[in-house]
Amino acid sequence: MLNEFVYCPRLFYYEWVEALWADNADTVHGAHQHRRVDKGPTALPSPTSAEEVPEAIHARSVTLSSEKHGLIARIDLVEVENGAVCPVDYKRGAPRQGDGAPELWDTDRVQLAAQAIILRDNGYRCEEGIVYYCSTRQRVRLPITEELIEETLRLAHQARALAARRQIPPPLFNSPKCPRCSLVGICLPDETWITTRLDITEPPSRPTAIQLSLFPECPSEQQPVPPVRRLVPARDDEKPLYLNTQGLKIGISGGVLQIRDKEDHTQEIRLMDVNQVNVFGNVQLTTQAIQALCQEDIPIAYFSMGGWFYGLTRGHSLKNVFLRRNQFRLADTPWACLKIARALVAGKIQNQRTLLQRNHIEPPAEVLAALKHLAQQARTADSLETLRGIEGQAANLYFAHFAGMLKIDDLWEATGKSRLPFTFHFTHRNRRPPRDPINALLSLAYSLLAKDVTITAWAVGFDPYVGFYHQPRFGRPALALDLMEPFRPIIADSAVLIAINNRMLTPDDFVQVGPSVALKNDARKHFLRAYEQRMDTLATHPLFDYRVSYRRILEIQTRLLARYINGEVPQYSAFVTR
């Protein structure tokens, strides 16, 4: 971990203290380059035997430790010759070009020096080390000097002190190191940096680069904020897997999920292409499949046949508890709960207003004005009870005009289907159970969104059952319900509008059981497609000004809340679409 500490103290903290890891192309390629030395350990002669070795010996994957200095290392290769040992470290990249000769990077120097210190503390004679750069096939030697040893031990002491403080270092500022870092999607360096320095609710007016070129005497504090780099992919390569057909059986073979139906027809999907598995109703997964999914940290979400989200299975990938400790502490602080809840409810009302503006046939000006006023009231509410009242008023206004966003236009009467048992006319929100097709779709959409936010909260490190606006209740993922509030209109409600207005569903796709109306099993596939289409839509983040999918925005917003709870940023802002 000294390599990571020298490269970026924040990276060291994530990997060592919080035990986080993520692969990228560089780490995968590096593991491939190490495949030979990682095959298995080979014996290293004892210090006394090394002095008597008549010919060169190569020991691979050697693990040694130094109790004196508190260091441990797995050395890729140890060359033993003429009584001396030389650690050889394999690196996938290329050396730094010095004055006429290749040089080691600072990270590689310190890592190699630590290996030499460990070898010396175990009684070996070690005068130099070597780094082999696979890209250029060069061996670069490093003499082990006393100055280098002192520097390495000093850095090791600093790394231990940082870990003991339990306070994550700030991100690097506009650093060229960040784009190649495998944890950049977790770290969010530019996003965290700008959030710590800007008033999110009222961004300050700053001069542009062109203005500064015209007026170079501008004070330094008025220098323009550098643009936020989009260092994370706009969309994930992996996709959710929905198992909706009753009677499916899912097994696994060689990293491939094998899905069999009642007729024993098989469909195969690679694990590497899946980021979550969603099970509806009577679908069976083998123990081997569940174990493989847990090992790859792919969550399994369970739904009833009607779409009620009631559980998750996931592996033990979450090892850091410090965020959850801070979450519990803040959840017991009334003013902190109110501050977070204000932002979430105000964001939800703003997004409801935006959806009406975009999709209503003739958006009523008085309703838009009222929603704008309620959003302003939400930002200054003096209690959670007051905030719930404001949210309720906004919901009544919003759903009273929801029907104006449905483009049905008497379609079914014109096509001779006027005798269908249901219509897509909507008057008000009802649930538990939903009593008309639109409310059935809204309930299913909210259930899917709650599932996705719960999975994201787990992945970031939260306990999804401890919320700030929704107070804890047995069996309720309160934090997930908190985080999904601003996204209800722009993801869930929008998915319902997509499915209806694009004729992906018809009134004939619904069935009534007692007072409850539900979507038929086969028709659910069409709505799942509409929901995933919305989740995959690119949107511009209002603060960072780059375009990413809504699924990615869910993760970004959840990580920003974690930054606020850990004290890295001064406030949390809900996502508000333009």
Sum this structure up briefly.
The protein has 578 residues and is an alpha+beta fold.
Q: Estimate percent helicity.
A: 40-55%
Q: What integer is the average pLDDT? A: 85
Contiguous runs where pLDDT drops below 50 for at least 5 residues: 200-223, 411-418
* Strand segment tally: 19
CATH top level assignment of the largest domain: Mainly Alpha
> Strand order within the widest sheet?
1-2-3-6-7
CATH topology of the largest domain: Four Helix Bundle (Hemerythrin (Met), subunit A)
Secondary structure blueprint with pairings:
Elements: H1 2-7, H2 9-17, H3 25-33, H4 47-50, E1 57-66, E2 71-81, E3 84-91, E4 96-97, E5 102-103, H5 106-121, E6 128-133, E7 138-143, H6 146-165, H7 184-187, H8 189-197, H9 209-214, E8 239-243, E9 249-253, E10 256-260, E11 266-270, E12 274-280, E13 284-285, H10 287-295, E14 300-303, E15 309-313, H11 322-331, H12 334-359, H13 365-379, H14 384-400, H15 411-414, H16 437-460, H17 478-484, H18 487-501, E16 510-513, E17 516-519, H19 521-535, E18 538-540, E19 547-549, H20 550-565
Parallel strand pairs: 3-6, 8-12, 9-13, 12-14
Antiparallel strand pairs: 1-2, 2-3, 4-5, 6-7, 9-10, 10-11, 14-15, 16-17, 18-19
Helix pairs in contact: 5-6, 12-13, 12-14, 12-18, 13-14, 16-17, 16-18, 16-20, 18-19
Protein name: CRISPR-associated endonuclease Cas1
Enzyme class: hydrolase
Region (Disordered): 32-52
